[in-house]
Write a structure and sequence with these properties.
Blueprint (H helix, E strand, L loop, with lengths): L3 H11 L28 E13 L6 E10 L8 E2 L3 E5 L6 H8 L7 E6 L2 E3 L5 H11 E5 L10 H12 L4 H14 L15 H12 L6 E5 L7 H15 L9 E5 L11 E6 L2 E7 L8 H10 L2
Parallel strand pairs: 4-9, 4-10, 7-8, 8-9
Antiparallel strand pairs: 1-2, 1-3, 1-5, 5-6, 10-11
Helix pairs in contact: 4-5, 4-6, 5-6, 6-7
The protein binds adenosine-5'-triphosphate (ATP).
Adenosine-5'-triphosphate binds next to strand 2 and helix 2.
Protein name: ABC transporter domain-containing protein
Keywords: ATP-binding, Nucleotide-binding, Transport
Pfam families: ABC_tran
Amino acid sequence: MSSVREIEISEAICGKTSLYSFPSQSATNANTMKLPQCSLSEPILRIRNLSKIYKMPGREESVIALKSINLVESTEFGPIREGEFIIIRGPSGGGKTTLLNMIGTIDTPTEGEIELFGTFISKNSSDSYLSKLRLEHIGFVFQSFNLLATMTAFENVALPMNLLGKLNKKEIRLKVRSLLTKVGLQDRMDHLPSELSGGEQQRVAIARALANSPELLLLDEPTGDLDSRSTVDVMNLLLDINMGKTGERPTTCIMVTHNPELECYADRILYVKDGEFQFQAYNSEKTPLVYEDYVAFLDVNP
Ligand SMILES: Nc1ncnc2c1ncn2[C@@H]1O[C@H](COP(=O)(O)OP(=O)(O)OP(=O)(O)O)[C@@H](O)[C@H]1O
């Protein structure tokens, strides 16, 4: 059985159940006129007939969170391809976090199958198989940062490397320094989370998510708790990571957000409602926000 400490560490890195936030009112802003950027890259994620039904302990009724959804070539909503920046939007309770948790193997499907990096995940997959898959291939970033409060920024970022056990102490030290430098926190390495701003904590969380050089970053409302300056900074950092501009290889990103203004960062926006994909939109070119324009927009549209 896991110790309290192990559970704390595991929850910090891989998260818990969803957080609830306000529904978004507006439909997608994406430009649907041009071809997607990632149309020719390799598929890394396919979903077939995926359903999730939550049964409430001691109660008759159940909640259908996902209804037999597909992301495969033969359907309207194709697979997620290497290098894509996907945004998932939709009203509160529509199933966004459930979908992200299924892709991240944090939660198991009731029915159906996920094909991730050529391996298959279903309700029959073992915990040890899934936790190895997560540690080696997937980075997680959450709205509430989920940093371990008693560890410094350096120690938080080193944690996944220590758990994986592939690098020696010196290699880990160098990689942590490099990652924290890339996210602009070279002067904050020895700070505890409580000594950092929200935006800084989220950048530590991003550095930690990148620790084992994952192919896939899963981001659940990563800017939900940030002010507008930090929102733009974090999103620009994520776009650089996605496009391989931080010196690492390009990293596929799947991000849940309620903020329609962030759609400009995505190659493709999937709109989820009532446990199903409603529609998708493609951006011709993923583009960073200009902070001054974003703030001016927020002033007019609070
Ligand atoms: N652990 C759980 N047990 C029971 N029901 C759950 C659980 N997690 C989610 N649900 C239900 O599944 C449905 C989808 O929830 P989910 O959190 O995926 O929606 P969401 O689109 O991410 O919402 P939000 O934007 O508010 O975070 C909701 O009806 C929710 O109440």
